[in-house]
Amino acid sequence: MNKIPNRQAICDVLMEEAKTDKDIVVLCSDSRGSASLAPFAAAFPEQFVEVGIAEQNLVSISAGLAKCGKKAFAASPACFLSTRSYEQAKIDAAYSNTNVTLIGISGGVSYGALGMSHHSAQDIAAMAAIPNMRVYLPSDRFQTEKLFKALLRDEKPSYVRVGRNPVEDIYSEESCPFEMDKAVAFVDGVPSADTASWADEEFDAAIIACGEMVRPAVEAAALLKEQGRRAVVLDMYCVKPLDVESVIQAASRSKAVVTAEEHAPFGGLGSMVSQVVGANCPKKVINLALPDAPVITGTSKEVFDYYGLNAEGIAKKVMELI
Amino acid sequence: MENLKAKSFELRQNVLDMISRAKGGHIGGDFSVMDILVTLYFKQMNISPENMDDEDRDRFVLSKGHSVEAYYAVLAAKGFFPIEEVIENFSAFGSKYIGHPNNKLPGIEMNSGSLGHGLPVCVGMALAGKMNKKDYRVYTVMGDGELAEGSVWEGFMAGHQYKLDNLCAVVDRNRLQISGSTEDVMGHDDLQKRIEGFGWHVIQVNGNDIEELNAAFEEAKTVKGCPTAVIANTIKGFGGGDVMENKAAWHHKVPSADEYEQIKKELAARKEAALHE
Description:
Chain A is an alpha/beta fold. Chain A has helices at residues 6-18, 38-43, 55-67, 78-83, 86-95, 123-128, 141-153, 214-226, 244-252, 269-280, 300-306, 311-321, and strands at 24-28, 48-50, 71-77, 100-105, 134-136, 158-161, 184-187, 190-192, 205-209, 231-235, 238-240, 256-260, 285-288.
């Protein structure tokens, strides 16, 4: 089992890049420990800004730095970053078009038993609704690393959500297909970022997931295979801009679509996929998500299992559909 | 030396024309803030169409974004865009001259309009200046009603924490906001003590006096180790005479034809007087 959470992978990339790129600035709101960014703060004190428990300030200061040539990476718990500083994200980052990457750490129900105040089950909907704001939920440490290297090369605002806990590897050093804003398709368990490579395949179902739900989605496809059913899985780490081409191809070549996300049932990945499928290749789409209510107390795994957000739950839903 | 006092009344006339034609705008705050903007743009900041992409330029954010009409008038006078184009198109369908600042226009650094953003953004700009060892200065202008936004005080805290002596925050203290007196809505007295309590150097001036404002900005440049706040005590609607001055209703009132003529006459008289001082 991999012990490196995605937040750690972010710190590793930023520390590597900051050795040669003095314009990288990391900002935290008393969150350097939670964000796994304490090593960055210790190694690059001149490129680290602590703003205290002040998420609005965190985002506005990031925007000001970015407007003066810096590449700002602002990390704070996703629950606070996505709503406490929502307006700063909307105006100072997105509307003013500044080079700010907002890193929502401990996203979704990572904080498990701490309750709804610490859950961010609305961040995809909130951030995706802002024009000029991109939304990414990488699935494992290898993809997280590639995503951040790509974000370092562009100069546009984005929101990235990662979880708190280590997640099992989906990819590997040797095999992590990545193209910016392109979903990764798992066909018979093999990942590919090239839609042409599976353009002629037929499936019983398409499973589209993001973030921590990608691993159970891939496992669900394996369970379905045991039952003689074939599913394509899309790792839609790029929730916005959504890879519409892959969604349409996957849905068109399947009997039904199931989405899975660690998010409220409205306005997230499932809503977006449903819009695209409804408009382009209408067929049944079922969204698996957290409930429209405070979630049950427990660890992430306990919560996921309770709501059927696991391999068995996804596979069961697919079997019901087809 | 150009007569900036006369210029400030001339630019208020541009504002009056913009708002009268568009039938909308925030004229009271435009008139109170005008002398602050004129002093910054014509005596203090090295910002012009020629150097607007220069890394060493001073930075400015209009935090009280609803005073955009005054901002447009000053930027146009600096040559960023033609004033006739602004008056013709302000707030019109599809216009780039929106009712709050937008950085797609030359000369505007940041979009604003939602209050309480300018100071924290300027903290970031000033921090970048320190990190990059640049000498530029960073200015923001806030309204006094705006001070009720908590994010403003987050900015004051951070400005002190990082000893940003390249940062200067101006408060357009006209003591009126949309609902009435600032002290009735949410009081800010004693503002000087409050801001000093956050570790800032504070200077109070008559904010409708360009010489006093200029002296304050000069003093701010000499202050080391902490940022400076200039409390610019102004009159809302300044220049609009008895019709307009110190009346909360003029926060965003559109002048009638009669009022337009009275205000125009008052501005012309004050400009004339300024030319003969």
